[in-house]
Amino acid sequence: MKYDIRKLRLLSNAEIAQGIFDMRLDYSDNPLPVACGQFAHVYVPGKSLRRPISVCDARDGVLRLVYQVKGEGTRIMSQMQPGAMVDVLAPLGNGFSIDSGKRYALIGGGIGVPPMLYTAAQCDHPLVISGFRNASLVILQDDFRRAGAETLLCTDDGSAGQKGFVTDLLRENISAVDAVCACGPTPMLRAVAAVCAELGKPCQISLEERMACGIGACLVCAVRVRKDGEEIMQHVCKNGPVFNAEEVVFHG
Ligand SMILES: Cc1cc2nc3c(=O)[nH]c(=O)nc-3n(C[C@H](O)[C@H](O)[C@H](O)COP(=O)(O)OP(=O)(O)OC[C@H]3O[C@@H](n4cnc5c(N)ncnc54)[C@H](O)[C@@H]3O)c2cc1C
Ligand code: FES
Question: Is the pLDDT at 228 greater than 90, yes or no?
């Protein structure tokens, strides 16, 4: 894993939907290559632990992190002003592996949608299926289309796109793709994994766990995975966040 700590100049930090911010950082100065599905660990002044945020985009010398204000750390991030220097440990983790020649369905739920943008940019005409609670939380749909993706949208309450869940749209369209990548809340990942297992499509999912070091040194982010018939513990930060869906042992 090749990563670096660097101070990156904040270019903009705009609110793009209710409580969701689009942080753009200057990444033009000799950057390490970023793979889709990797994350950045952002230092927040006054906080001892960094905050992990997925890479939303890393094209054209700009590192883009799209995040939702959840607690104190992301609230402080949302108040950072253009020109500030942001301390970022990146790129971290193992991302999605994309085979050229395959068509992918990229499934995002809520704040799991952003990493699918850089992933879409690595794929040939992917099908991006995004799900949100309601219309006020919808983000990035034009960005996906600009990246060459076909987009399908659903909301829980039907206020934008089709009413229902990403798994409904996945079932309706799964014959049009060869493989699936997904990021979002655990119940959504579990449901996407089940649809793919039932219909025989390879599926990679990006997991989220509380993190401390972000580099495999502290064990905070351990998850149970199945390898060669045995259950073992792995680190979401170092071995993931992306895992093959059939390897993941879901809790409960
Ligand atoms: C690999 C990965 C990628 C992520 N990508 C994104 C993204 O692209 N956009 C986005 O909005 N959010 C993302 N998250 C979740 C984001 O890290 C948390 O929402 C954020 O750390 C909350 O910090 P806080 O101080 O605002 O909240 P608090 O709840 O006050 O945080 C307290 C502590 O818990 C940790 N923590 C809280 N919630 C989470 C969580 N869900 N996952 C990991 N650590 C957490 C914080 O880092 C902090 O150390 C990602 C998480 C992981 C693990
Ligand atoms: S966060 Fe420390 S091992 Fe993953």
Answer: no
Domain that holds residue 229: 207-252
Mean of all residue pLDDT scores within the chain: 96
- Interval between CA 211 and ligand 1 midpoint (Å): 8
Indicate the pLDDT class of residue 250, thresholds 50, 70 and 90.
Answer: confident
Which structure tokens are listed for 142?
């034009």
Which amino acids bring their CB within 6 angstroms of ligand 1?
39, 49, 51-54, 66-68, 70-74, 111, 114, 208-211, 241
127 and 200 co-located in one domain: yes
Q: Are residues 167 and 217 in the same domain?
A: no
pLDDT tens string 39-80: 999 999 999 999 999 999 999 999 999 999 999 999 999 999
The answer to whether the CB of 49 is under 6 A from ligand 2 is: no
Which element (helix H / strand E) includes 183? strand 179-183
Residues 105 and 187 in one domain: yes
Q: Nearest CA to 214 among 2, 50, 74?
A: 50
How far apart CA 179 and CA 106 sit, in angstroms, is 9
Contact by Cβ (8 Å): 85, 9: yes
pTM of the model: 0.96
Question: Nearest ligand, CA of residue 68?
Answer: 1
